UniProtKB/TrEMBL annotation:
Keyword 4Fe-4S: yes
UniProt cofactor note: Binds 2 [4Fe-4S] clusters per monomer.
Assembly behavior: Monomer.
EC number: 1.17.99.6
Protein name: Epoxyqueuosine reductase
Family: Belongs to the QueG family.
Record has 4Fe-4S as a keyword: yes
Pfam families: Fer4_16, QueG_DUF1730
Subcellular localization, as worded in the UniProt entry: Cytoplasm
Role summary: Catalyzes the conversion of epoxyqueuosine (oQ) to queuosine (Q), which is a hypermodified base found in the wobble positions of tRNA(Asp), tRNA(Asn), tRNA(His) and tRNA(Tyr).
Active-site residues, Swiss-Prot/TrEMBL: D136 (proton donor)
GO cellular component: cytoplasm
Annotated 4Fe-4S ferredoxin-type domain residues: 181-210
Amino acid sequence: MQHDQLASAIKQWGLELGFQQVGIADTDLAEDEAHLLNWLEAGRHGEMDYMARHGTRRSRPQDLLPGTLRVISVRMDYVPPGVPDGWDILENAALGYVSRYALGRDYHKLMRNRLQKLADRIAAHVGPFGYRAFVDSAPVLERALARNAGLGWIGKHTCLINRAAGSWFFLGELYTDLPLPADAPATAHCGTCARCIDVCPTQAIVAPYQVDARRCISYLTIELHGSIPTEFRAAIGNRIYGCDDCQLVCPWNKFAQASAEPDFTPRHRLDGAQLVDLFAWTEDEFLARTEGSAIRRIGHERWLRNIAVALGNAPAGADVDAALAARAAHPSELVREHVAWAQARRAGDA
């Protein structure tokens, strides 16, 4: 099979395996490397030390996997049909908002398995070849590679946007030593739009295409291990795991497609559960109800930390006050501190 024929076949096989699009990129990321290094130099990665620890391996695929010539990039839609509108949840401060990507099963294993099947199909036609599959599992500039593979452009909020599918999708990669023809990079179509910049609750998008993670609610509720800075707590509102505002407001998401993957169906009513109910979960309940979910990685302590902040921003109610009082003497100093803040805020003292 000729390389151009193989590239076409790979794209078709990817669609058959449940990916919505497949593209092929070369490995030149020099401009993106400069952007990454400037971002790190400014300290905008916060406590995500792993971003700096891997150095330029993130922007040089051949250094991560010697022999890499091309990157097969894939995307998969993740918002299932029937999920309540995100703004409706955000406007009801008694409910907990969970980022749409984390409502169902953790995507890492699902996509990695599909990528392995794609690699197996390639091997069945060309014989053994060098490859490695990645799904948020290694230092990879996945959005830059996806852009170069023609899957979309990097928007001003730094998420990837596809003209026909918006931005509600996951990305994955197969690094390979096959000299496949590369696709043309996607062109940008944000124009003068700045809705994502304007809507960010904590002004984390400090300039077009520049996000300061230290201000980002997704970072504060997921990546940050310690105390959430008090200056951001009111702005967090009822967002208890991640934040989607910049995507919710993006006009290109009117073209987003619902996912047909049953594994992405919301679990335990996380697409609109009451904060007081979520705050009542014991650690055993948390572990059981987040099994196979991306949420589990933050642990029960940070789960309670996040919800305590949201309860501090919730409407007046005896149920909220009782829920906070029940956790006021929690063994974790981190939880106690955020509960105390929430109680003070509700009393008008914070």
